[in-house]
């Protein structure tokens, strides 16, 4: 500037302030209520699918366990409304249940230890079942992967 004037700096506009503590306190209970409601809905959905499967297995006298039929029902439900149900309801409660699996397996392990004589007596059959199931799982997984990769290559 000419004339020896003083140059003033203009402050940039400040961003809007963060919500006050009082507003944040009001939001937290609402989020907790939503979280609990979604967890309850997830548990109810899982129980409803399981109970429906058990009912159908008993009513139709199917040789398939009701829990397997319940999983098929859950699969159909998720196929019909995948994003609305799975992301908001099923995933959060499923993640929580998966984190609890070690605690759910402890009673089974204790039960096996309590029946060591029977386990030793039936060891050949148990080993055959475990190895056979393991091999069948690997075979089915390999065949499914081969099939799906072939479909992807044909489309791509």
UniProtKB/TrEMBL annotation:
This is CidA/LrgA family protein. Pfam families: LrgA (PF03788). It comes from the Bacteria. The chain crosses the membrane at residues 36-60, 66-85, 97-117, 123-149. Residues 1-29 are annotated as: Disordered. One of its GO terms (cellular component) is plasma membrane. Its main location: membrane. InterPro entries: LrgA/CidA (IPR005538). Keywords: Cell membrane, Membrane, Transmembrane, Transmembrane helix. It comes from Mycetocola manganoxydans. It is a multi-pass membrane protein. It is found in: Cell membrane. Signal peptide: none annotated.
């Amino acid at each position: 500037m000419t004339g020896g004037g003083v140059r003033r700096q203009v402050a940039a506009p400040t961003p809007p302030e963060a919500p006050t503590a009082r507003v944040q306190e009001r939001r937290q209970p609402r989020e907790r209520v939503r979280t609990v409601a979604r967890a309850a809905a997830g548990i109810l959905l899982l129980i409803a699918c399981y109970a429906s499967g058990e009912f159908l297995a008993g009513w139709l006298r199917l040789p398939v366990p009701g829990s397997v039929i319940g999983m098929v029902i859950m699969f159909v439900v998720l196929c019909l409304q995948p994003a609305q149900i799975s992301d908001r309801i099923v995933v959060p409660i499923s993640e929580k249940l998966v984190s609890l699996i070690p605690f759910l397996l402890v009673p089974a392990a204790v039960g096996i230890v309590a029946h060591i004589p029977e386990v030793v007596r039936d060891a050949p059959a148990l080993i055959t079942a475990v190895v056979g199931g393991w091999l069948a799982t690997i075979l089915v997984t390999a065949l499914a992967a081969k099939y799906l990769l072939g479909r992807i290559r044909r489309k791509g």
